[in-house]
Amino acid sequence: MVTIKIAGKEKLYEDGIKYEIIAQEYQNNYTSPIALVVVNGKIRELMKRVDRDCELDFITYSDMIGHKTYARSAVMLMMKAVKDVAGMEAASNVKVEFTIGPGYYCSFKNGMKLDAETIERIKDRMGELADMDMLVTKKSYSAEEAIALFEALGMKDKVSLFRYRRSSSINVYCLGDYYDYFYGYMMPSTGYVKWFDLMPYEDGMVLVLPEKEDPETLPQFVPRKQLFKTLMQACAWNQEMEIDTVGDLNNKICEGDIADIILVQEALQERRIGEIAQDIAGRQGVKFVMIAGPSSSGKTTFSHRLSIQLRTYGLNPHPIALDNYYLNHDQTPIDEDGNPDYECLEALDVEQFNKDMSRLLAGESVHLPIFNFKTGKREYSTKATVLKADDILVIEGIHGLNEKMSYTLPAESKYKIYISALTTLNIDEHNRIPTTDGRLLRRMVRDARTRGTSAQKTIAMWPSVRRGEEKYIFPFQEEADAMFNSAMIYELAVIKQYAEPLLFSIPKGTPEYYEAKRLLKFLEYFLGISSEGLPNNSLCREFVGGSCFDV
Fold first, then answer.
1. Helical H runs in 204-346?
2. Which of 384, 351, 392, 350 lies closest to 367, judged by CA?
3. In Å, how far are 105, 351, 508 from 5, measured between CA atoms?
4. H or E, element range at 198
5. How many Cβ atoms are within 10 Å of 95's Cβ, its own excluded?
6. Is 371 within 8 Å of 379 (Cβ atoms)?
7. DSSP annotation string for 240-259
8. 214, 277, 428, 476: which could join 401 in a potential S-S bond, CB 3.0 to 4.6 Å?
């Protein structure tokens, strides 16, 4: 018998009992299904068994780690269904690309096509497998054995990935006769994956899953055409450079090609910035370029680079940050957790912004504000700004696309740009890299360098930042005149060196420790590269330092 302490109370259980059975006993104490357990401070899958006295806690689908576990398990369920319906060759040609809202877009490689009827059969098979409650098993293979297994299965992306693994063993998951590798935890059986939809979309299909905030309700999938087009353009760039996965990137680094990759990526971004500048210059009456995007998208560097391109068309741009219109911090609204809500529109002096911009549009001179983040108070420039005939204001901030931010300005005077770091590089073809992970690492490195903020504090603030993005930024992205993807295919290999020491500094036992450990494991997949070869106007330099711009 073993003694297990749960919620402060000790209880005896049979040695070797599955954590899943204990979780079922305590499920009624939680509003969301239990996904994982925490055993003496370490996360364990429900399929594991108790082997010693311990203290136990639970993680549900409503927790970020639990939600990712559900999504991972749903992807494996889908891949097993593809194999059952269309064969292993078809399964090896399905790639989980990126998310569009609650949907995971999956493409087909090597000319494979799955029609709507076949996709419906795959969905039906997923339901059958879920009803069967098939066990998910995990087995540890040596690196050599894992490489041989996935070579035989035609999963070359995993073979490439494993060649750079420092660990001598690799955990492989099995669902019946289907084998796969997944970065992170899994549910113990298919019966846990109850809420999903699968539908044709563009040239592929979309797997729709519940969101963390409501994990037992399937949301409606709403197509986002501009976002999809931008993401597919990034995927096309990846294919041009022959880098679809982390294994591909590591290969390029080892082959000595990374310097060329950096230059090509930077040139592709500059070309896109030039196209946007040309569109702005070709429109009559545009005086305000409104740039918005989620945290750590590179808005500041982008605004400077766009300004340079606009100058080539005879325009005289003036970059302005909406952050300068923050209310003094003692006037900042409070969020539902009792913390200052710097993400909401009400944290900005919207009225003053509109007065200033309207005066500039009317030809008046205005002393614009400069927010002092050290004192938490607004100050004012000693130099007045005047909007002349060829002048144009390049305004960046998270609320730039929201009409409430610029309600007094004529529509024809505004050109709206949505910017985000839309990561399309995958760990492998079934393990995508969330866009949020790239942005979180960017912010962690930048805030530690420029504001002295610890990684622990950045991670602690991130849920609030994400809530603000979902509420104040993403609903307006499709209204933009242009979209810009600031993600660079090489950047995580650079950021790795800066982020790892920050993550290792987070103490065990703190709420942020689990996320730090996950990110450290994630960064292990990448071979690191130096930042010395980055151009001094690179978006990446906004985060790692050395930019020629004041960022």
1. 225-240, 246-254, 258-281, 299-311
2. 384
3. 42, 55, 20
4. strand 197-201
5. 20
6. yes
7. HTT--BHHHHHHHHHTT-HH
8. 476
Task: Kindly report, residue by residue over 35-93, the tens digit of the pLDDT.
Answer: 999 999 999 999 999 999 999 999 999 999 999 999 999 999 999 999 999 999 999 99
The dihedral region occupied by 263, where left means phi > 0, alpha psi between -120 and 50, and beta the remainder, is alpha
Q: How far apart are CA 221 and CA 100, in angstroms?
A: 8
pTM of the model: 0.92
Q: What are 246's two structure tokens?
A: 């982390």
For residues 486 and 297, give the distance between their C-alpha atoms in angstroms, rounded to a whole number.
6
Instruction: Specify the 3-state DSSP secondary structure of 173.
Output: strand
| CA count, 13 A, side-chain hemisphere, 129 | 30
**Among 524, 353, 502, CA closest to 440:** 502
**Which of the 8 DSSP states describes residue 220?**
P
Give the Cβ contact number of residue 380 at 10 Å: 12
Q: How far apart are CA 58 and CA 286, in angstroms?
A: 54
* pLDDT at position 343: 83
Instruction: Give the integer Cα–Cα distance in Å for 551 and 536.
Output: 12
Instruction: Please state whether beta strands 288-292 and 391-396 pair in parallel, antiparallel, or not at all (unpaired).
Output: parallel
Cβ atoms of 401 and 476 within 8 Å: the answer is yes
- Reported as a single tens digit per residue, the pLDDT across 428-485 is 999 999 999 999 999 999 999 999 999 999 999 998 888 888 888 999 999 999 999 9
Residues whose CB is less than 8 angstroms from the CB of residue 154 and which lie 6 or more positions away in sequence, other chains included: 88, 89, 92
CB 425 within 8 A of CB 243: yes
